[in-house]
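Archive transcription. Copying these from loose printouts into the bound notebook so they stop getting lost. Printout 1 of 2:
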Amino acid sequence: MVHGHVLSDFAKSDKEWLEVLLDLMADSADLLTKGDDNGFMNKVTVGLRDKLQPTSADDTPPPKTPRPHAPKAQSHIRQARPNHRIRPASESPLTQDDQPQ
């Protein structure tokens, strides 16, 4: 048994956003045929954002917050020895005879 609400038409109040969504999807369908799913979703999302006005606070996208900068990445060797510093040859524990020429 199939319930009526599954197969019923959209409400008239949904007509505004639904037509915009369907038009954007049709205009961007070529991206799907090329396998560019991410490009398709991006184009539809940006188009919806440009063409529709928020009707409530729930519809408004959240403000963009700057991301904190991650600390500079270190090589795995420096991570293993965080206090290591490169010594000049004059401070080398090797004797003069052991140092490469």
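Printout 2 of 2:
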Amino acid sequence: MRLYIPKIGISFHVPMGDVSEMNQEMDRQGRGGLGPSTIESRYVLEDVPFGLLPTELLGKISGNQANPS
């Protein structure tokens, strides 16, 4: 994530901050993302239970837990 945050600031011309602050600034400027606008989207309803959860469980089983930082 450390390398991703400066890339967002440079690419989208927003002040450096955490990812949430930078995304909020892009939205204020009318350049918000094209992602889902509600929780009732395929990304949440399918990707989380069928992608993220199994990945997390496989990590636990193999002793390689995911590190969000």
